[in-house]
From TrEMBL, chain A:
InterPro entries given in the database record: CO_DH_flav_C, CO_DH_flav_C_dom_sf, Diverse_Substr_Oxidored, FAD-bd_PCMH, FAD-bd_PCMH-like_sf, FAD-bd_PCMH_sub1, FAD-bd_PCMH_sub2, Mopterin_DH_FAD-bd
SUPFAM superfamilies listed in its UniProt record: CO dehydrogenase flavoprotein C-terminal domain-like (SSF55447), FAD-binding/transporter-associated domain-like (SSF56176)
GO molecular function, one term: oxidoreductase activity
Keywords of the record: FAD, Flavoprotein, Oxidoreductase
Lineage: Bacteria, Pseudomonadati, Pseudomonadota, Alphaproteobacteria, Hyphomicrobiales
Gene3D superfamilies xref list: 3.30.465.10, CO dehydrogenase flavoprotein, C-terminal domain, Uridine Diphospho-n-acetylenolpyruvylglucosamine Reductase, domain 2
Record SMART domains: CO_deh_flav_C
Keyword Flavoprotein applies: yes
Superkingdom in the source lineage: Bacteria
Organism listed in the record: Bradyrhizobium arachidis
Transmembrane segments: none
Database matches in Pfam families: CO_deh_flav_C, FAD_binding_5
Domain called FAD-binding PCMH-type: residue spans: 1-177
The protein, known as: Xanthine dehydrogenase family protein subunit M
TrEMBL record, chain B:
InterPro entries per record: 2Fe-2S-bd, 2Fe-2S-bd_dom_sf, 2Fe-2S_ferredoxin-like_sf, 2Fe-2S_ferredoxin-type, Beta-grasp_dom_sf, Diverse_Oxidoreductases
Upper lineage: Bacteria, Pseudomonadati, Pseudomonadota, Alphaproteobacteria, Hyphomicrobiales
Keyword Iron-sulfur found: yes
Protein source organism: Bradyrhizobium arachidis
The entry's keywords: 2Fe-2S, Iron, Iron-sulfur, Metal-binding, Oxidoreductase
Pfam families on file: Fer2, Fer2_2
PROSITE patterns: 2FE2S_FER_2
Residue span(s) of domain 2Fe-2S ferredoxin-type: 4-80
SUPFAM superfamilies hit by this protein: 2Fe-2S ferredoxin-like (SSF54292), CO dehydrogenase ISP C-domain like (SSF47741)
GO function terms (MF aspect): 2 iron, 2 sulfur cluster binding; metal ion binding; oxidoreductase activity
Name the UniProt record assigns to this protein: (2Fe-2S)-binding protein
């Protein structure tokens, strides 16, 4: 399994990378950790003529605070997210989810930018980013623009990225102190993509859910926000009837593909269970 | 496709070669450098047999291009023995604890365990199991691989290795 031929570039700045991408046209692709792209190239499902390696661009690295947001450079790896005290403290759900991605070797190489830009419904970060209300910074020849994660995903492998644009960073609002969180992921084995997964971030006040956001992974051709399910739990103490209502509302928007991870009905069913478990665990953590 | 000149350090020695951009690092190591300890098991980034250590990271070398390794510092299984030629703690552990049967997965297991112990010299059994979760072994059932890594951890920390009661 050897990829088709391509020419390789290693620009040192975002401006150079953007220029290369627009000069070389549609057959040019950015290369981040390569752990989605290289396997696809080996299977010849992707045959880019030019690869623009982003590893030489120092500006795409690092995690910093900007007001109430954590701004994470696109080339920050899952391994670096796991090593970050900043992330563990401010956004423990990001730590929890990163630990469920693939295996250690893949996490050393796979980047947050590659994970969210890839557009694969199986990737874990996109639904999480929608749940957290994150924004992506995209930079192209015409300048920079910010796109909400919730508006970024348009279809399987189809995103708001325009030709010639690079995703440079992800900006995530820090959830309020005392929030509850959980990322529940059902997979066949360690290192596997989700059969179905659910992210929940909520706050509780006076024993009742005050705010809630629910994201779903790999139960549709794009990541989903389960808006009705989240609405159903607000103002409740998450009693059994409410949990059931939330799971049913979430299942109603799921449209998974049948694949080796199971038939459609099964994946929807376990998707609902992931929502229930994530809600319960998030509530148990809320202060 | 025009070939590119690459240089890198492998097991402490400067090496160079001419590669196509599409040449995978694992092929460069095996074919250009003739170091065949790094194995190819699956080619799909799942088995970990091709794991090498690059600039302080465990990397599946079947999923990285040799051109991406330009200028980096790589250790392969050929570089794992002690300077005087004796077996390193990990190699000794795999031997003493019967951490292998056919041996195909062993180079990748040892390279992964090497980085794991560098980051955490005293991992728990659970941490070892999660630490090698990107490496597949079709023979051993993992039990003795875990013991081998525990043996090496004890040796590195200068404590006596005791097998946990089953
Ligand atoms: C065995 C295995 C198991 C895995 N399991 C999981 C899992 O459980 N969950 C999960 O979420 N992922 C999983 N992955 C995928 C892994 O996390 C990938 O590393 C990740 O999805 C892609 O990130 P990357 O940095 O490797 O991107 P690449 O593979 O380099 O790129 C992916 C795509 O995004 C584009 N791209 C990359 N960076 C940018 C950028 N900054 N701007 C614009 N476009 C960009 C590329 O052109 C390409 O089209 C797995 C991978 C493997 C090999
Ligand atoms: S050959 Fe590289 S992971 Fe299997
Ligand atoms: S010893 Fe045979 S695959 Fe591990």
């Amino acid at each position: 399994m050897i990829p088709g031929s391509f020419s390789y570039y290693r620009p040192a700045s975002v401006a150079d990378a953007v220029k290369l991408l627009s000069d070389l046209g549609e057959d040019a692709r950015p290369l981040a950790g390569g752990h989605s792209l290289v396997p696809m190239m080996k299977l010849r499902l992707a045959t880019p003529a030019h690869l623009i390696d982003l590893h030489g661009i120092a500006a795409l690295k690092g995690i910093r605070h900007d007001g109430n947001n954590l701004v994470i450079g696109a080339m920050t790896t899952q391994h670096e997210l796991l090593a970050s005290d900043e992330v563990a403290k401010a956004m423990p759900i990001l730590h929890e989810a990163a630990l469920l991605i693939a295996d250690p070797q893949v996490r050393y190489r796979g980047t947050i930018g590659g994970n969210v830009a890839n557009g694969d419904p199986g990737n874990d970060m996109p639904a999480l980013m929608m749940t957290l209300g994150a924004t992506y910074r995209l930079e192209g020849a015409g300048g920079a623009r910010d796109v909400a994660a919730a508006d970024f995903y348009q279809g399987a492998y189809f995103t708001a990225l325009e030709p010639g644009e690079i995703l440079t960073s992800v900006s995530v609002p820090v959830p309020p102190a005392g929030h509850g969180y959980a990322y529940e992921k059902l997979k066949r084995k360690v290192g596997d993509y989700a059969t179905a997964a659910a992210a929940v971030v909520l706050t509780v006040s006076g024993g009742k859910v005050a705010t809630c956001s629910i994201g779903l992974t790999n139960v549709h051709e794009t990541p989903l926000l389960a808006v009705d399910a989240a609405k159903a739990v607000i103002g409740t103490s998450l009693d059994a009837a409410t949990l059931k209502k939330a799971a049913t509302a979430a299942e109603a928007i799921m449209a998974p593909a049948a694949d080796a991870r199971g038939p459609i009905e099964y994946r929807k069913h376990v998707g609902g269970i992931m929502v229930t478990r994530a809600l319960q665990r998030a509530a148990s953590r809320a202060k | 496709m025009a070939k590119t000149h690459v240089t890198m350090k492998v097991n402490g020695a400067e090496v160079e070669g001419l590669v196509e951009p599409r040449t995978l690092l694992v092929h460069f190591i095996r074919e250009n450098l003739g170091m065949t300890g790094t194995h190819i098991g699956c080619e799909t980034t799942h088995c970990g047999a091709c794991t090498v250590d690059i600039d302080g990271m465990s990397v599946k070398s079947c999923t990285m291009f040799a051109v991406q390794a330009q200028g980096s510092d790589i250790t392969t299984i050929e570089g794992m023995a002690n300077a005087d030629g004796t077996l390193s703690a990990l190699q000794e552990g795999f031997r003493m604890m019967h951490g292998l049967q056919c041996g195909f997965c062993t180079p990748g297991m040892i390279m992964r365990a090497h980085r794991l112990l560098k980051e955490n010299a005293s991992p728990s059994e659970q941490e070892i199991r999660m630490g090698i979760s990107g490496n597949i072994c079709r023979c051993t059932g993992y039990q003795n691989i875990v013991k081998a890594i525990q043996y090496a951890s004890a040796k590195i920390n200068g404590v006596e290795f005791r097998e946990a009661a089953e």
